[in-house]
Amino acid sequence: MLNAVLTFSATCSKNEDKIIADIFKNYNRYVLPFPPNNRSVLVEFGMSLVLIVNVVGEKLPKADKATNATKPLSSSDFSLYLTTAI
């Protein structure tokens, strides 16, 4: 029984290797998965200023008593370019 399991496992491994090799046959790791850079890319992110408040000395907006949440801070910068380090 153990021999059958090991043989089956080895056979699956070869098949998996063939599938992976076939899938990534024409893969180019330097091609980026988004539109050309003449089109805009919308990037959204958030941050928390809780630890910076004590250093700067400014207070965050008052929290809403019902939800205990502060007003989110937002900014738009359309000159950002999305780059990746490979």
From TrEMBL:
InterPro entries: Neur_chan_lig-bd_sf (IPR036734). It comes from the Eukaryota. One of its GO terms (cellular component) is membrane. GO terms for molecular function: extracellular ligand-gated monoatomic ion channel activity. This is Neur_chan_LBD domain-containing protein.
